Amino acid sequence: MNTKDAYKQKAEAELEIAHARVAEFKAKAKNFTADTRIKYAKHLEELEHGVDTAKSRLKELSEAGEDGWEKLKDGVEKAMTGLRKTMHDVAEKFKD
After folding, report:
1. CB 28, CB 60: distance < 8 Å
2. pTM here?
3. How far apart are the first and last CA of the chain?
């Protein structure tokens, strides 16, 4: 397995975890009152947007050739870092 494939697998695994967390937060939100659900809907949208952005960057990286993928790696890293931060922020909000 080359470096690109290993990096891609690691990022895909992290995206799977993010998808699971989104599902978890949505399930929790179903138990909230309508007003609280509305309050948290924005946070869930931000998290879903982060997942979509990271997925898009990863797709670009996957389609890049062996020579070009390194240039796209920074974009994937930024997207994954943003996703991690958003996931953490949403998790903190759902603790309240």
Report:
1. no
2. 0.81
3. 43
